[in-house]
C-alpha cells in the first residue's frame, strides 16, 4: 500500500481502526434483536441459521467422524427443491454464534434468529476495522476514519449487517481478499501471495461471489507483474483453491459432480420477480442498467461525491511533484484495483441473462470498495478546506468537514430499522423512488415487532395470522420464530396461499410488506381492507396490518 507523505504512526493506525470498529460493532449489535427495535425476520434468515446449527451440531456430535462420507452426506444434504448450494463458511459463523446462546445445541428444531445476527454484526465490525486500517495507512487519519464510518452511512450495507444471512459476511471476505493481495504485492514474496490466496479461499468458501472477486484480482496481479507475474499468480490461485477444497468436505467426495451442482445451482434457478421502473420483470430480463442505477440511488449523495473526487482527482492540475494534495498522491495500482473491482461487479450484473434481484445485495461488495475511494476523496476535501483562511474560527475545517460528513448519516437514522428501503436524494428519497417505479421493501424486514405485536394484541390465543407476499416455505416459520408477541399468543403464521382468492378459513388478520414485485399475488380487494396499524417511512407504507373481511375468511376451504 502507498504511504501518505505524512504517515500516521503504526500504533495510531491500529488504535484508530480498533476504536472505530469496536464502536460500530456495538452500534450494530444494539439493533440486531427483533424485540429491541431491530429489522423484522427476512426471507432467508431461518434457512441460513438452520443450516449453521446443523453444521455445528453435527461436528459436536460426531467429532472426527464428521469428515466421513456418511456424515458429510447427511450434514451437507441438499435438495433440488431447496435453495442453491452454498459453501459453508458463512453458515459456520452463524452457527457458532447461535451455539453460544443455544440451550439445546442438538435440538435442530430449536432455533433463534437474534444470536446468529450477532455473528453478522461482528463480521461487519471486522470489515470496518479492515477498511479503516487500510484507509489510514493509505490516505491519512481523516481519510481512514471517513472510509470506516462511511460503511455505516450506507444504509443498505448497514441494514444487511443486522441480518443472519450471508450478504454482509460475503462483503467482509471479498474485501479482505482484495486488501490481502494489495499487501502481498507490496511484499513481493511468493509466500505473501500464497497467504493472500488463502484469504481469497475464505471468500470462495463463503459464497459464489468469491469467484467473482477473484477474477479482477488475478488480472491485477498479472498486470502489475507482467512477465514476472506467473509465479505470484500461481501461488495465489493454488492457495485459494486449496483452501476452498479443504474447507468444504462436501467436495471431498464425488468432487466433479458436486462442483457441477454448485456452479449450476448458483446460476440456474426459478426466476425471481423484480420491480423496476414501474413494472415487474423476471430476474434475467431486468434492464441491464439496473445494477448501475441501483448503486447510484442507494449510496448517500455526499459519499458518491467523495468517491468521485477520488477518481477524477487524477485529472486535476498537479504540483511539480505530481500531486493534487500534500499527503494524498495520485491514484496508485491498488486504487485502480478497488475501482476495477467495482466496475467488474457491476459489469457482471449488466451482462445479458445474468440474474439480478433483491435490491443491491447481489453486488453488495461494491459498497465496501467504494468506501475506500470515499476515504481518499474525503482526505482530499479535508486538505482543500484546510488551505482556506479561518481567521475567526480555529476549528473551522473540522466543523465544515464534520458537518458535511454528519449529513450523510441522515438516511441511517431516518430509515431505522428498514435500512433496505433506503434511496438517496437523486431520486427524492423513498417517496420519490416509489413514484419513479422502484421497489419499496423487497425482503420483509419491515415486518417489525411493533407491527406483529399489534396483530397479537388484537388476535385470540392460537389464532392464525396471514402474511404476504410469501416468497419461501420457511418464511412464515421465521416470522413466528422472531416475534415474542406472536409466540406468547401461540399464534400460527401462514403465508398467503399461491393463487388463492380468499384467505385461510377463520383467519381475521393479515400483515403485508410492500414488495411491489409480488404484491399482486394478494387480491386487490384484500389489499384494500381497512388498515389497523402501519409502518411507514417518508410517507410510504412499508408494512401493514389489515383486518380481513369476515365473509371471505369464513367461506374459505
Structural commentary:
This protein is an alpha/beta fold and 557 residues long. Among the domains are: 295-433, no CATH class; 449-555, D-Maltodextrin-Binding Protein, domain 2, CATH 3.40.190. It has 24 helices and seven strands. The chain has helices at residues 10-30, 45-62, 69-75, 89-100, 113-139, 141-153, 155-160, 167-187, 190-204, 209-225, 230-246, 255-267, 290-298, 301-312, 333-348, 365-386, 396-407, 410-414, 429-436, 449-458, 475-482, 484-488, 524-527, 550-555; strands at 273-276, 279-282, 464-468, 492-495, 509-513, 531-537, 540-547. It has a five-stranded mixed sheet. A two-stranded antiparallel ribbon has the order 1-2. A hairpin with a 2-residue loop joins strand 1 (273-276) and strand 2. The longest helix has 27 residues, at 113-139. It is globular and about 70 Å long. Residues 1-5 have low confidence and may be disordered.
Write out key terms for the chains shown.
two-stranded antiparallel ribbon; 557 residues; single chain; D-Maltodextrin-Binding Protein, domain 2; globular; disordered N terminus; alpha/beta; 24 helices
Beta-strand proportion: 5-15%
Overall form: globular
Low-confidence stretches: 1-5
Question: Could you give the count of β-strands?
Answer: 7
- Output the structural class: alpha/beta
Q: What count of helical segments does DSSP give?
A: 24
Domain Glycosyltransferase RgtA/B/C/D-like: 86-252
Protein name: Glycosyltransferase RgtA/B/C/D-like domain-containing protein
InterPro entries: LipidA_mod_glycosyltrf_83, RgtA/B/C-like
GO cellular component, one term: plasma membrane
Amino acid at each position: 500500500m502507498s504511504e501518505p507523505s505524512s504517515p500516521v504512526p503504526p500504533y495510531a493506525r491500529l488504535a484508530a481502526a480498533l476504536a472505530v470498529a469496536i464502536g460500530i460493532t456495538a452500534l450494530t449489535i444494539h439493533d440486531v434483536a427483533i424485540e429491541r427495535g431491530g429489522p423484522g425476520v427476512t426471507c432467508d434468515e431461518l434457512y441460513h441459521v438452520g443450516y449453521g446449527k446443523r453444521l455445528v451440531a453435527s461436528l459436536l456430535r460426531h467429532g472426527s467422524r464428521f469428515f466421513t462420507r456418511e456424515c458429510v452426506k447427511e450434514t451437507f444434504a441438499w435438495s433440488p427443491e431447496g435453495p442453491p448450494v452454498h459453501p459453508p463458511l458463512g453458515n459456520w459463523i452463524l452457527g457458532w454464534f447461535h451455539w453460544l446462546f443455544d440451550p439445546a445445541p442438538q435440538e435442530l428444531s430449536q432455533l433463534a434468529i437474534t444470536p446468529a445476527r450477532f455473528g453478522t454484526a461482528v463480521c461487519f465490525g471486522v470489515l470496518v476495522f479492515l477498511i479503516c486500517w487500510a484507509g489510514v495507512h493509505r490516505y491519512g487519519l481523516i481519510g481512514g476514519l471517513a472510509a470506516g464510518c462511511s460503511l455505516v452511512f450506507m444504509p443498505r450495507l448497514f441494514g444487511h449487517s443486522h441480518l443472519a444471512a450471508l450478504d454482509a459476511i460475503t462483503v467482509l471476505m471479498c474485501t479482505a481478499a482484495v486488501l490481502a493481495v494489495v499487501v502481498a504485492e507490496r511484499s513481493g514474496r511468493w509466500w505473501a501471495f500464497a497467504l493472500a490466496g488463502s484469504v481469497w479461499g475464505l471468500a470462495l468458501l463463503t459464497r459464489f461471489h468469491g469467484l467473482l472477486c477473484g477474477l479482477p484480482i488475478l488480472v491485477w496481479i498479472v498486470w502489475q507483474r507482467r512477465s514476472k507475474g506467473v509465479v505470484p499468480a500461481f501461488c495465489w490461485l493454488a492457495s485459494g483453491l486449496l483452501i476452498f477444497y479443504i474447507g468444504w468436505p462436501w467436495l471431498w467426495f464425488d468432487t466433479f459432480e458436486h462442483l457441477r451442482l454448485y456452479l449450476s445451482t448458483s446460476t440456474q434457478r426459478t426466476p425471481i420477480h423484480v420491480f423496476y421502473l414501474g413494472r415487474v420483470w423476471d430476474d434475467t430480463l431486468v434492464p441491464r442498467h439496473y445494477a448501475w442505477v441501483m448503486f447510484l440511488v442507494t449510496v448517500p449523495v455526499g459519499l458518491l461525491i467523495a468517491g468521485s473526487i477520488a477518481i477524477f482527482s487524477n485529472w486535476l492540475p498537479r504540483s511539480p511533484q505530481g500531486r493534487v494534495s500534500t499527503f494524498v498522491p495520485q491514484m496508485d495500482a491498488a486504487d485502480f484495483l478497488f475501482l476495477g473491482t467495482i466496475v467488474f461487479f457491476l459489469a457482471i450484473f449488466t451482462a445479458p441473462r445474468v440474474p439480478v434481484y433483491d435490491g443491491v445485495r447481489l453486488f453488495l461488495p461494491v459498497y465496501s470498495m467504494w468506501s475506500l475511494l470515499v476515504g481518499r476523496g474525503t482526505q482530499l476535501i479535508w486538505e482543500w478546506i484546510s488551505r482556506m483562511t479561518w481567521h475567526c474560527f480555529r476549528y473551522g475545517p473540522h466543523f465544515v468537514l464534520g458537518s458535511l460528513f454528519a449529513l450523510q448519516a441522515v438516511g441511517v437514522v431516518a430509515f431505522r430499522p428498514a435500512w433496505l428501503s433506503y434511496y438517496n436524494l437523486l431520486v427524492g428519497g423513498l417517496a420519490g423512488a416509489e413514484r419513479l417505479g422502484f421497489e419499496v421493501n423487497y425482503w420483509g424486514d419491515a415486518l417489525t415487532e411493533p407491527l406483529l405485536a399489534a396483530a397479537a394484541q388484537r388476535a385470540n390465543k392460537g389464532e392464525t395470522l396471514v402474511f404476504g407476499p410469501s416468497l419461501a416455505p420457511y418464511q412464515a416459520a421465521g416470522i413466528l420464530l422472531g416475534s415474542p408477541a406472536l409466540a406468547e399468543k401461540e399464534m400460527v403464521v401462514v403465508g398467503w396461499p399461491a393463487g388463492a382468492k380468499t384467505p385461510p378459513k377463520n383467519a381475521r388478520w393479515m400483515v403485508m410488506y410492500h414488495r411491489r414485485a409480488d404484491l399482486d399475488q394478494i387480491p386487490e380487494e384484500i389489499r384494500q381492507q381497512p388498515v389497523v396499524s402501519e409502518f411507514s417511512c417518508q410517507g410510504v407504507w412499508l408494512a401493514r396490518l389489515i383486518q380481513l373481511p369476515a365473509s371471505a375468511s369464513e367461506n374459505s376451504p
